[in-house]
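debug: dumping io for the single-chain case to check the tokenizer round-trip. Nothing else runs in this session.
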Amino acid sequence: MIDDFGYLYMITGDNFLSWVAPKPQLFIREPELIREILNNKNGDYQKPEMNRITEKLLGDGLASTNNEKKWAFHRKMANKAFNAEGVKVNRERRDPGFLSLSSHALLLFLIFFLTF
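debug: decoded output
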């Protein structure tokens, strides 16, 4: 399925619209658009409502909350974990046999759980 996304990006470009179950989903790889959505200064991009399974899986944290104060708190905590030195240390300690999720696999996972 990840190869399908590679193919779709190849024939459509960095951004495309597709239907996932009964909902249209916009897939983007263009850095400027990603930055705009993640910054979300105007509040134009709301996270979708989650179903019970997704809510139990993700909780009410950085990836799922629309509450600004909670989001700011979780973002501050996450920033501490992802500083340059911390990432370098974690990369050195990682088991070479460990298969990390690609960005596409993570995207598919989030889409599946956020839409059903």
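debug: round-trip ok. The chain has six helices and two strands.
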